[in-house]
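Page header: ASSEMBLY MODEL / two components / 224 residues total.
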Amino acid sequence: EAQVTQNPRYLITVTGKKLTVTCSQNMNHEYMSWYRQDPGLGLRQIYYSMNVEVTDKGDVPEGYKVSRKEKRNFPLILESPSPNQTSLYFCASRTPSGNTDTQYFGPGTRLTVL
Amino acid sequence: QKEVEQDPGPLSVPEGAIVSLNCTYSNSAFQYFMWYRQYSRKGPELLMYTYSSGNKEDGRFTAQVDKSSKYISLFIRDSQPSDSATYLCAKTNTGNQFYFGTGTSLTVIP
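Prediction written out in full:
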């Protein structure tokens, strides 16, 4: 089954404790992206990657890092999480052949930073 | 000014009604517009996309873009309870950076 998986699905942590949210896709997609979703602010893009070792900032990259060492994986790293990073996070992937190709979203990771 | 503005609703309609969902955007350079549907506790899924101006129809759904007024619309005919979800409009220019509206919550009452 074609899918994007994220782990963990739920995470409660404390300020300053480094964490990584993993994202993996089995569709051989070159493009992957991370978003956060907040009430009243909607879905906002954090980082995206057009291929292995190629990443770029989205709309709200501050406080986040990403890496793309393999095509299927695109982890999101919070080096020193803060309470304002409490949010619902989504990973997505799509093929690059045209802007209209479907962007597949993962199930989401709900992060709470105390 | 936000790239995409969307009325959050909530919107509640009886089954069978025609639903109109709307967004406005601020940068006319963007050419690709999308509508996503998001069920509770799920990730968004692509419903429809349109390029530049004009209409696109897919079953009960019609997406419309008016570039002169920077207006994006989604019409749902013969709405069903299964259409109850949050609908997100989005735009992109290059297919790499995406901008989403805040979403409109829709409930279709049987």
